[in-house]
Write a sequence for this structure.
């Protein structure tokens, strides 16, 4: 049964319990605790039961939670694990945040104490730049392809010829991330077919900027 805001407001943790779930349908449910109400999505991927957090109600509204559910379902329909896409986004955001927060530290503060205190392993600006440049390269390969489309194996070879030597799994992670940004569309199978969207074309040509994708530099 679909929830309403009044239903959510009326939910309370029953006496003697720490938490309980209220379903909205399609795998989306509200985990109600004394500390708050948390949106989650239950789904299966590769034969395993998983869950994905969408945030806290009312910071994430009912409508927003349903949009997040639909976006995750679209990824699942393309045989992409939405949890892995979110994990990749979180890692990259943490890398940027950690790098920015440590840039102003003195050298003394950066040194480990008795070799036990070490900075978290995060992506450097250089590593982040490489990822963003590679994503741009993927869009540019699609732009150069017939009908703005190609297959994974051809894309991997083309990236290799352009200096980006990555694994097949790394390529799929990049493609899944670009799909989440709506700059490519997919046709799944033994090998994925990748199609450039209008947004992706605009990003490849520098007519717009997509977060996480390097904007091409004009050759003047």
């Amino acid at each position: 049964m679909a929830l309403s805001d009044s239903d959510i407001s009326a939910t309370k943790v029953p006496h003697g319990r720490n938490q309980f779930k209220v379903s909205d349908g399609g795998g989306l449910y509200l985990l109600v605790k004394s500390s708050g109400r948390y949106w989650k999505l239950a789904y299966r991927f590769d034969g395993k039961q998983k869950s994905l957090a969408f945030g806290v109600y009312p910071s994430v509204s009912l409508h927003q939670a349903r949009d997040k559910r639909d976006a995750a379902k679209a990824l699942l329909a393309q045989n992409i694990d939405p949890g892995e896409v979110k994990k990749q986004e979180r890692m990259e955001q943490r890398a940027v945040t950690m790098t920015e927060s440590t840039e102003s530290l003195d050298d003394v503060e950066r040194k480990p104490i008795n070799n036990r205190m070490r900075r978290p392993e995060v992506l450097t600006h250089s590593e982040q730049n490489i990822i963003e440049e590679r994503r741009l390269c993927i869009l540019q390969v699609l732009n150069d392809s017939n009908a703005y489309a190609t297959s994974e194996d051809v894309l991997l070879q083309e990236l290799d010829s352009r200096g980006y030597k990555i694994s097949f799994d790394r390529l799929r992670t990049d493609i899944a991330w670009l799909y989440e940004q709506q700059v490519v569309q997919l046709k799944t199978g033994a090998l994925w077919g990748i199609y450039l969207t209008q947004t992706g074309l605009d990003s490849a040509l520098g007519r717009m900027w997509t977060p996480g994708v390097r904007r091409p530099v004009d050759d003047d």
Remarks:
- The longest helix spans residues 82-102.
- The radius of gyration is 21 Å.
